[in-house]
Amino acid sequence: MIKMSNKVIGIISGSSAALIGGTTITANVLLKDEIGTKPNTNPLGRDKSYHYYSIVNKIASNPQLDNLITMIKDDNNVTYILEEEKFLSNIKPIVQEALKTIPTFAADYLNYQIDIHYKINTKSIFVDLVWFKPEAKNKFFDQFELILQTS
Fold first, then answer.
1. CB 96 within 8 Å of CB 114
2. Neighbouring C-beta atoms of residue 1, cutoff 10 Å
3. Quick one: which of 37, 59, 96, 127 has the fewest CB in 10 Å?
4. Is the model's pTM score more than 0.70?
C-alpha cells in the first residue's frame, strides 16, 4: 500500500479536474451544414411560417467566432469555458453580420429579431437560429453544429 499525504492527493485531484475541464471545450469551428442543404427533418416541429435559409457559411467565415469561448491558461494547463451570457451576446452580432451580406435581408438586417437556442454536448454545440421581423408572419431558421475539439 502506498501512503500519500493530503497535499499530494489534493494536487493530483486538482490537476485531474483541470485536465478534464481543459479538454472539453475548444471550438474549432465547423459546422456540419457546410453545403447549405435543407435539413431532412424539422426537429422542433415548426409550422409553415418557418422557412429554412442557410447562413452557416457566412457565420463560419466570421473571425468573431473566436470570442464565443473563453480560454484560461495557468501553468501547463489550458481551460476553455463557454459562458452562456457571453456566447449569446457575441453570437447575435455574428448573425447580424451574416444577414447584412445576404441581399434578401441586407436592407433591414438590424430590424430582425434573433432567437438563439443551443444544446451543449461533450463534442459539439448544436445551434438553432431563428430570425424574423416582429411584425412579419414568416420566420427564417438555420441549424448547425459547432464541433468542439478535445486535446
1. yes
2. 2
3. 37
4. no
